[in-house]
Amino acid sequence: MTTTTREMHAWGKLRPARATVCTPAWPPAALPGPGPLLAYGLGRSYGDSCLLDGGTMIETRFLDRIRAFDPHTGLLRAEAGISLDAILRFCVPRGWFLPTTPGTALVTLGGAIANDVHGKNHHRSGCIGNHIPAFDLLRSDQPVQTCHAGDALHAATIGGLGLTGLITAAQIQLTPIRSAFLDVELIRFSGLDEFMALSAESAATWEHTVAWIDCIAGGASLGRGIFIRGNWSDRGALTLHRPARLSVPMDLPACTLNRFSVRAFNTLYYRRFCGKTKTLHQHYAPFFYPLDGVGQWNRIYGKRGFYQYQCVTPPAAGTGPMVQILKQIAASGQASFLAVLKTFGHVASPGLLSFPTPGITLALDFADRGARTRELFDRLDAIVRDAGGRLYPAKDARMRADDFPRFYPQLETFRNHLDPSFTSEFWKRMHPH
Amino acid sequence: MSAPTYQAAVFGATSSICQETLRAMLRQQPARLLLIGRNAGKLAAVADDLRCRGAECLTLTAPLADFATDWASLLPQHSANRPWDLFLLAHGTMPDQEQALADGNSLAEVLAVNFVSPAVIAAACGAILDRQGHGTLAVIGSVAGDRGRGSNFVYGSAKAGLDTFLAGMRHRFAKRQRIKIVTLKPGMTDSPMTAHLTKGPLFSSADRVGALAWQAIRAGTPVAYLPGWWKLVMTLIRWLPEMVLHRTRL
Prior knowledge:
The complex is a heterodimer. By secondary structure, chain A is α+β, with helices and mostly antiparallel strands. Chain A has a domain at about 180-400: Vanillyl-alcohol Oxidase, Chain A, domain 3 (3-Layer(aba) Sandwich), CATH 3.40.462. Chain A is about 25% helix and about 25% strand. By secondary structure, chain B is α/β, with parallel strands linked by helices. In chain B, about 45% of the residues lie in helices and about 20% in strands. In chain B, helix 1 (about 15-30) crosses helix 7 and helix 5 (about 105-130) runs parallel beside helix 6 (about 155-170). The radius of gyration of chain B is 18 Å and the shape is globular. Classes of the chains: A alpha+beta, B alpha/beta. The interface of A and B includes residues 2, 3, 4, 24 and 90 of A.
């Protein structure tokens, strides 16, 4: 196994970690050394949950072999370093798709499990953890074991941030598709109440729903956006997506995204079609992965990097807290154009530390502007905390340590399943003493 | 389902460029593959992956640097009485050059694995192609063989020897139009073998290199740089006068 010492980055590029990196070409039978250890897939976690400074990071991306596939049931078993992108390249021509998918396919299967990723069909299908019947886990104190749905270690590992051991392989239940295209409707909405009505109306008849929201617009335009809903189409071939053709060649100057450029972009984007609605017959790539077409897009935020803030507020709290959050963000003028709003459904994930709970989730990027940005986050945290909501560790680089157990009531149960040799910068940050 | 009509024997099937080449092949057509390598467990993992992608796979565990194996008579035993469309030779190791220079045995082993063994196997495959009258022999060489450079000449000289050996075979079969000898020359490729190197813009993914390798094999390209722009880079490096080259740390 090749070992080297180098700087490792998360997607937000805020603080790199210097680690010993080992890159296995084959699923290992034993872990390298005593630790501390952490798996590293494609580095798409935004904050520091995928980093371990001064430890050994196990880079999994070459563990990418498919080990079994049943073309009748769509059950696929693969090594954990395979990317969702590679799974799609395999399964789409055969008439299958991922059971649910995050907004990028450039994550590994192991990473998707460790962060219990969700997608536009959460209200129907839950998280990816709902579709992982079993996986192989290598812990520091025992040989590789297979964990099945219902096992305590299965529940701890799904959304377990890679802290229960190294996932070496996993099964995933794919979903059948007849075409690689979706029938899509775009509907402009003017505020949060209209968004809620569209979500409620769409839940039963639309498999995929999400909204882009203009987080710069305040006042009468607060909460305006475009609701996007789609169903798999019967029309169209099983056409595969193309690899990225464009790439951001270098870090752009930090001032590229400012309140004026973002406001201009958002206004144009909000007005991108005439009338109130538009229907499309759209390929899955622009529908699910609009940014995968541009390599290294995280460079648009400049050298200092960026944060993503993703929270969920429960239905009991109503739309009040989300309105407050949007007002704070609009008043700060710091938001970027990448902002997403979605209602989570009631399908419960098996994961003890799984992020999605019923309610409204908002995710958006913020270039790092120092204290101003962190103070805004503190104000948003207070609203989320009071509403009984939570933040998403996979995106986080600055959550308060005392909020973590409040947000995740099953944390104490989870601790019983930690592998003592594994930790991460996120975990260390949540346990400062 | 009828048996695939395309048949290939692959030496060093566990190398990542080779796996990607076979995946690219299977995206276009099914195939019957004989996978040959040293480690049964790793071969089985590769065979699983390729089977899922539509191959019919057999595995054969063999020490590839054991020159006593008579491949010319062994391979037909696994051919299911059908001709071989492709022999793909992908084995080789990237050595620790300093260690090889300090220890004669280690140097000899590097040259054996990267030159002697593929040359011996290529000769045997050539004999089979000669009998069959058609088919392709494709061998993974390296851009490192194009010029001796201080940083990498042990590996480079083995690949240079292989390059010349294959050029000679190509000449020998020049009048046999249905026999193709293909020298594949990948440049720097992002794989577990190069995981310790800092990745610059010169690196290509194994996935891309594999897809291009399969294109070259299908087309019967005599010498294929992977990707093609390495041809330009290596031409420039070959033309550098020694005086200039010696000022660099290439």
